[in-house]
Design a protein that fits this description.
binds magnesium ion; Rossmann fold; binds iron/sulfur cluster; binds adenosine-5'-triphosphate; alpha+beta; 16 strands; 460 residues
Length: 460
Amino acid sequence: MRRDRTNAPGVLDDVEVAPGEPLIEVEDLHTHFEVGGGLFSSSHASVRAVDGVSFDIRRGEIFGLVGESGSGKTTLGRTLLGLAPATSGAIRYRGLDLATLTEPEFRPLRRRLSMVFQDPNASLNPAMTIVQSVGHPLRIHGLTHNRAETRERVIDMLERCGLAPAERFLDTYPEDLSGGQKQRVVIARSLITEPDFVVADEPVAALDMSVRAKVLELMMDLKDDLGLTYLYITHDLASGKFVCDRMAIMYLGQMVEWGDASRIYDDPQHPYTRALLEAVPLPDPARRGRDKHLPHGEIPDALEPPRGCRFHPRCPVAFEPCGWEGRDLVDAIEDRWTKVDEDTFERELSLVGDLADAKVTRAEARFPAAEADALRRWLEEIGPALPAKVFRGVESVEQDGHEVVVRFGYGPEPAPQDIAGHTVACHLHGVVPREGGIHAGPVRGSGSETGSGSARERGV
Ligand SMILES: Nc1ncnc2c1ncn2[C@@H]1O[C@H](COP(=O)(O)OP(=O)(O)OP(=O)(O)O)[C@@H](O)[C@H]1O
Ligand code: SF4
Ligand SMILES: [Mg+2]
């Protein structure tokens, strides 16, 4: 199913998409938020919440988006529904590019594209009765013509959502309901306009453990009964395996691994996916005794994502071409100083000076030093021993007047590659630069010069 771009959403009713065919097709989508100046740009900067994702969601499937907080899951979901404006790229829904629509053009489509939010308390207006809340979208879209008709549709949907007999709930307020009942109301409201695509943003995360499974089960049943397609957003990779047909692992605005959910779960190829899985506290004997923690460090700022592979500062198997940069060296020295004894710290501090005075760019770190030659020798000596492996990316250490300049080499963003039946973006499978990725600093050589063998050869 393909057709030319058109700005006439009314004709969508004629566009048939068979089960298993792409209902949503996303191509190189970016959603950036303009904010104040950042580290490398003083005038204006943007948070790259979604930064170049391409995938499709097939009719009738549950497509999972998994990742840590701040990885861009909600922003991607909101962009697909026109709730956050795309900066660039395409979102085709039944062949129509949503990213190009104006708000008035988008409005009639909203009843077909729906969202369930995480927190039912924040989603429901406490001053509206349940029948008012659930019936509201019907009135907005002009789908019913009088109160009796609205009431009848609300009763039907509440009962489908497990709130029966519905009459008991119609004139109550959210505060009269339990958390699970409130989320059922939210689901009823999101489905009352008969959408065919639903973004469910952590729909059970705010609920008690005891009701999570029941609400998820309800959503799966409704999917089958009403012919829905879901984008299911979650932090929880383990639940993703059971709920999703396919899924994507997101990190700092990009997808790092995507494809069949059980393949990814059973045979993860990306170090970040492996780290997420190892952090899952499952009673799986095969995984018992393994490290249950994510790699060190917080997820970095989406304002200034790391160069090359965005995961490199935390990746346990990062190597030469993964995108090392000036700030990694400063961070590594800072980290070293938290661990060495007082005398060593004082000696090294007098040599390096205050780290705040280092001039850091993506391509280099410049240390102003009274004894530049001694500092250069020290860096060459301690560099290879730094646990962060940042020295693997160093191209040269040179003296430039009263400064020592550490320059970093080739470090492209990894391109997606098909590995083990799904898609993975990681240099371990061969250094393949991503088109249009960030290439700052002196780029030299080719992928084959810098790649150091296959993942198997590297023992990972
Ligand atoms: N309106 C906004 N303005 C500026 N930055 C934003 C805005 N909305 C989101 N962001 C930033 O975009 C990035 C992605 O946020 P998003 O909420 O999409 O992540 P998430 O994966 O859904 O996280 P969580 O799991 O915590 O819900 C974050 O750095 C966030 O601070
Ligand atoms: S490209 Fe792969 S090996 Fe390199 S830092 Fe990223 S995840 Fe780790
Ligand atoms: Mg979110």
